[in-house]
Design brief:
Elements: E1 7-15, E2 50-58
Antiparallel strand pairs: 1-2
């Protein structure tokens, strides 16, 4: 029987999939320049999640 591939690699990775916190205050990554004290910018884009999957075949 002849092997169709020398090697086969399947991989998957993810980044920033979950946030575990009960903190309800201002997100420290939001740009707060020009905001009045006590005002929190709520209509910002959600944080991005990254999913990557791949397949590597060597013949």
């Amino acid at each position: 029987m002849i092997k169709p591939f020398k090697s086969l690699r399947v991989y998957a990775t993810g980044r920033d999939l979950f946030v575990f916190t009960k903190y309800s205050g201002l997100d420290p990554e939001v740009n707060i320049n020009g905001l009045d004290p006590g005002f929190e910018e709520r209509n910002v884009y959600p944080k991005t999640r990254t999913f990557m999957m791949g397949l590597q075949l060597n013949f």
